[in-house]
Amino acid sequence: MSDVFETLKAIVGPKGFSEDPAEIAPHLEEWRSKYKGRSSLLLKPASTQEVSAVITVCCQTHTPVVPQGGNTGLVGGQIPFENEILLSLSRLNRIRNIDARDASMVVEAGVVLAAAQAAADEKNLMVALSLASEGTTTIGGLISTNAGGVNVLRYGMMREQVLGLEVVLADGRVLDLLRTLRKDNTGYDLKQVFIGAEGTLGIVTAGAIKLFPRPAQRATAYAAVPDVPSAVALLARLQEDTNGLLNAFELMSRSGLELVLAHIPGVKDPLSSPSPWYVLCEASGPVGIDAAFQKALETALDDGIATDVAIASSETQHQELWKLRESMSEAQKLEGPSLKHDVSVPLSAAAAFIETAIAAVTTALPSARPVPFGHLGDGNLNLNFQMARGGNTAHNLARCDEIQQIVHDIVHDYGGSFSAEHGVGVMKREALRRYKSATEVDLMRTLKHTLDPKNILNPGKLVPD
Ligand SMILES: Cc1cc2nc3c(=O)[nH]c(=O)nc-3n(C[C@H](O)[C@H](O)[C@H](O)COP(=O)(O)OP(=O)(O)OC[C@H]3O[C@@H](n4cnc5c(N)ncnc54)[C@H](O)[C@@H]3O)c2cc1C
């Protein structure tokens, strides 16, 4: 192995590797400290050619590699568990091109989402994707997990934002699909195979991403709603009255808001009296969208769909409202251990699903405190459960798999998905085997074996053995 390491280190040069445990350590633990891995060599290639040369050697020597972007993934996909080489794409950080006429940008895998957003903004254009981890998450990671976020309702997930890709294959060849065409109907759309593949089929080195006109006006509101069916009704009302210009529709429970108020400095409850549920919603579009949005909310108040509303009247207020929603994961982390479920169900089933799943989990584990929230506009719910403070947490967490299966079985019964947007990684491999058909799993294995016959790309992730 030491000869292989020397060859790989020579490819990337002195700035492109580390064997220092202190430098490697932050890459081995994920955001929630749920997974901890090990790796003796961190490689940081600076170009597609270097990635290609690295993977060529790894292929020839059967050396496994785990690709990593911003290390914000929530299913353990970016963590090397078996002392694999850790391949950080962070030095592939150039914005290669922005073309306002094509409304597209070509960015390397290690570019952080916030940097891509800022570069588009300078050209008066917009990257549609937005999520709470955008200050750290990278374009390569977003593509490889087919990430979602808060604007999926209007713009779709990452899969719908990608026009082209550059990928290093498992044998080291570079597959150049970096086209910015909106129409290219020439057979299999190969880029789709690598989107959401979690680094198991190829290393994404660059992507061509769609850009959108920056909306002239944006209207944001925080509404109290009596129950989940009312939230679903409010969504339909707002979509109709804004002509489909709603871009975000986020559900929060009172229990979640209370954790945010308790743990996040500088936030306050925007409404004077408590409500069991809240919705953070946003519409954007031409001048006048704010009036249509406000009128729709007033009608919702008259009809009792909403019981109170705070509308942002400045950029500061907009930020304050969004901070409540975006701090939800952080607040739960600060509160203590929790069981998390990133699932989706048809919107029509959202209310029944939440009720059924909470009843089932709290029957199985009475100390679990439900903290549901999520991108309700997409039917995506984070059905999380906080563990009792000072209780027998170790025992409760040990029951994690059992509780997860209870929730996922109910999701399945409602025609939903056990992973709405975070992917599969190591966390949900067993669920994939349980809920996907044997034919689907078999085809996934065939694809993996065809594209990575030596199983060197992120082994042990996503595809069940
Ligand atoms: C606070 C918080 C909020 C979040 N909110 C959301 C949300 O709203 N919606 C959502 O979808 N996700 C969310 N996430 C999850 C996470 O941000 C996304 O999964 C993101 O896409 C991961 O990007 P990354 O660069 O950090 O990738 P990493 O975590 O480094 O990697 C993720 C996966 O992609 C693979 N990978 C990374 N780069 C490459 C590459 N260049 N080529 C091939 N494979 C690669 C890794 O091997 C791994 O399997 C959130 C995470 C946090 C911490």
Strand-helix topology:
Layout: H1 2-12, E1 17-18, H2 21-28, E2 42-43, H3 48-60, E3 65-68, E4 85-88, E5 95-99, E6 104-108, H4 113-122, E7 125-126, H5 139-145, H6 152-155, H7 158-161, E8 162-168, E9 174-177, H8 191-194, E10 203-210, E11 212-213, E12 217-225, H9 228-241, E13 246-253, H10 254-263, E14 277-285, H11 289-303, E15 308-311, H12 315-326, H13 328-335, E16 338-339, E17 342-344, H14 350-364, E18 369-374, E19 380-386, H15 393-398, H16 400-413, H17 429-435, H18 438-451
Helix pairs in contact: 1-3, 9-11, 10-13, 14-16
Bound molecules: flavin-adenine dinucleotide (FAD).
Describe the structure.
The chain is of the alpha+beta class. It is 38% helix and 20% strand. The protein has helices at 2-12, 21-28, 48-60, 113-122, 139-145, 152-155, 158-161, 191-194, 228-241, 254-263, 289-303, 315-326, 328-335, 350-364, 393-398, 400-413, 429-435, 438-451; strands spanning 17-18, 42-43, 65-68, 85-88, 95-99, 104-108, 125-126, 162-168, 174-177, 203-210, 212-213, 217-225, 246-253, 277-285, 308-311, 338-339, 342-344, 369-374, 380-386. The strands form 4 sheets. Strands 12, 13, 14, 15, 16, 17, 18 and 19 form an 8-stranded antiparallel β-sheet that branches. A 5-stranded antiparallel β-sheet has the order 5-6-10-8-9. The chain has a 4-stranded mixed β-sheet with strand order 1-2-4-3. Helix 1 packs antiparallel against helix 3 (48-60), helix 10 (254-263) packs across helix 13 and helix 14 (350-364) runs antiparallel to helix 16. The mean pLDDT is 95. Flavin-adenine dinucleotide binds at residues 31, 66-74, 77-78, 89, 109, 131-133, 137-138, 140-142, 144-145, 147-149, 198-199, 203-204, 329, 421-422, 425, 458, 461.
